[in-house]
Amino acid sequence: MSANQQSLPRSAAGQHSPWLIAVIVSMATFMEVLDTSIANVSLPHIAGGVASSLEESTWVLTSYLVSNAIILPISGWLATIVGRKRFYMLCVALFGISSLLCGLAPSLPWLIFFRVLQGLGGGGLAPSEQSILTDTFTPQQRGQAYALYGVAVVVAPTIGPTLGGWITDSYSWRWIFFINIPVAIASLVLTYIFVDEPPAVVEDQKKARQGGIRVDYPGIALIALGLGCLQVVLDKGQLEDWFASDFITSFIIISALALVFLIIWEKLHDHPIIDMKMVSQRNFALCMAMMFVTGFVLLMSVQLIPQFLQSIEPYDATKAGMALTAGGAATLVFMPIVGALLKKVQPRYLIAIGLAIQAGAAYHLAGINADLSFEHAAWARVFQAIGLPFLFVPINTIAYSGLPSGKSNDASALLNSMRNLGGSFGISVGTTLLARRSQFHHARLAEFITPMDQLRHAHLFPSFKALDGVLQQQAGVLSYIDTFWILALVSAVCIPLTFLLQRIKLGGEPAGH
């Protein structure tokens, strides 16, 4: 990069306040992240509305996740080629239009097709937004900026199930898509008026287009094949019984081969769509791994707590979701606190604290029983939510430190890909553990039940069916306990990795090796 290009301004704020820009770009983020969780609780209603089975309707979720996973890694390259502001607005527009079409879908195939379009639009939002924030704020301000942005990323999944349940119960499942439209329109108008395309970004675009646009078609194809098949495996694996299914086994093999060939191809290609040199930098590679863990912990816990309250406790979707909402309030409080701490404390120490809090929260949740109160569940979620800002904000801060300024698009795309992929793994692992451990505990508990037990306690269990119901409930509780133990273990094991991160100059450039 020439000295002249380095001196060009990169801020998207222009004459406006950078904090206004942060609020504007966070709007679309909140909308997109919310959409990844809001449809989950509405699946039975969606299935009935489009005359399909509940199993078939799960493709409404899978199709979105697959297209989202495919577009994320290449969104940095697309933003550079198309122009960051233009690409961002195209993504918002596509997301809003496809949301309208999803709400109007007359059948399941059409709904799945429109969800694919929605996933393509949504996948390009977060990388563009984080790139805008990185270039708009000074190193001293980035911690607070990422804190504001992190509110949208972390809080949206916590209120998604509650909002989705309330909208579906009060109105219609179609409104979970229609509510995106006014947000998308507002985002487009505000972005057009207030967000600038800075001269340095325009120069990046000209440089990328110099000599014609060179498209890494094999790289794009391998990303689509590898990540698309992997997302299908994660979403459908437990339902299809993993390696017992030829369908899942085939997709695992295809995904593994495609991703291996992708790494080899991108290292050898002159104009790769993924910059492997950037991935090989220790700090950035470790941040990618930490972001994967953050997605894993966030989405797995968001799935487990309301699911426990609905399956073991007599809560509906709305009340179960409210237990998560309390955690959202805690995140709102601690995001700016962590942003301020980053001016004085090394990010790696804050990340270690965040992982320790997650391990402690999961350990606390492992002490649940069938009589878990709403207050206990809500406070457990608050404890867990306090740790999330200690992960999200420092990881983003240290990841961009030391990277060339022109690489913010690519870095944002990779970090968000890892967060989404970690979330998909978290949901898949949680679902599988619950099913397998519940079967295990039911079988073990049943070994100690004899016909005489039912006769001896006939006043409590008038039939074996009633007794089996109690066994299933207890087996379910034990499976949740096991799963929370695994979550605690994953968080604790990752703590030592944080000390491999290199120190950075607080509020500035890296301090060196």
Descriptive notes:
With 513 residues, the chain is mainly α. Helix content is 76%, strand content 0%. The protein is built from 23 helices and no strands. The longest helix is centred in the C-terminal third of the chain and has 39 residues. It starts with a helix and ends in a 19-residue tail after the last helix. The N terminus and C terminus are likely disordered.
Keywords:
23 helices; mainly alpha
Biggest sheet layout:
none
Helix content: over 70%
Q: How many helical elements?
A: 23
- Average pLDDT: 83
Radius of gyration: 23 Å
- How far apart the termini lie comes to 23 Å
Shape: globular
- Beta-strand segment tally: 0
Q: Unreliable segments (pLDDT under 50, ≥5 consecutive)?
A: 1-5, 508-513
Strand and helix order: HHHHHHHHHHHHHHHHHHHHHHH
| Main structural class | mainly alpha
Strand content: under 5%
Describe the secondary structure blueprint for this structure.
Elements: H1 3-7, H2 18-38, H3 43-49, H4 54-57, H5 59-82, H6 84-104, H7 108-123, H8 125-136, H9 142-170, H10 175-178, H11 180-194, H12 199-209, H13 217-236, H14 246-268, H15 276-279, H16 282-311, H17 317-341, H18 347-365, H19 374-387, H20 389-400, H21 408-446, H22 451-456, H23 464-494
Helix pairs in contact: 2-8, 2-9, 2-11, 5-6, 5-7, 5-13, 5-21, 6-7, 6-8, 6-11, 8-21, 9-16, 9-17, 9-20, 13-14, 13-21, 16-17, 16-20, 16-21, 16-23, 17-19, 17-20, 18-19, 18-20, 18-23, 21-23
